[in-house]
């Protein structure tokens, strides 16, 4: 498990293999480890590298971002969430981006107590994960 945590950090640093990196990041994040903040911060930094990238990111990149946000949304700082929202304005996917935004908007920030969630505004799910996965399977991406 400790090796996987180090692997996440090293994988996030790799700039040359960004497409393949997305596969590995998604795979490691789906193991649902309790990760130290430095690993979470490195993962946010990895995604933020694509803020000014003019390339259209592949679906796997968006899926790895969704997996990250779904699992660790309550461990992200407010500024990280704001930065990821800015990123999603430039790197959009018609099916995945609404899910990522919904997860970011319906979560507490790092350090907030569970009771603080009651202060959040509820936003209805635009696309359920089931529909999202079904749509992705039915389209050739």
UniProtKB/TrEMBL annotation:
The lineage of its organism: Eukaryota, Viridiplantae, Streptophyta, Embryophyta, Tracheophyta. GO terms for cellular component: cytoplasm; nucleolus; preribosome, small subunit precursor. Belongs to the bystin family. This is Bystin. One of its GO terms (biological process) is rRNA processing. It holds the Pfam family Bystin. GO terms for molecular function: snoRNA binding. InterPro entries: Bystin.
